[in-house]
């Protein structure tokens, strides 16, 4: 099944053939902050069709995983995950007609929080709103 998607502003567009009809919600620090839902595509089953090379790279921690986002609208589009650096974890929420596709897929959870070598990112003590 060939799927298409892109960032919010349309600068970056892509196509992919998912490995399985399964989305994964990860609870690690960055996936939580991004609000991403992962759909896996293997190497050769994902390609940027518009704005190739435009996506900006973000890396943290061990700097193995590569997180790509649109420099214009800030949408997180895809990542090359730490566990499979040649594969693509596409942010399923950036797919065209995501809300129609979601009910057809199995949804699972990955405990990335326990998997982070540095442990959970500390939460700074907060000042209540006044
Ligand atoms: Zn954009």
From TrEMBL:
PROSITE patterns: CENP_V_GFA. SUPFAM superfamilies: Mss4-like (SSF51316). One of its GO terms (molecular function) is metal ion binding. This is CENP-V/GFA domain-containing protein. Keywords: Metal-binding, Zinc. InterPro entries: CENP-V-like (IPR052355), CENP-V/GFA (IPR006913), Mss4-like_sf (IPR011057). Residues 3-106 form the CENP-V/GFA domain. Belongs to the Gfa family. Pfam families: GFA (PF04828).
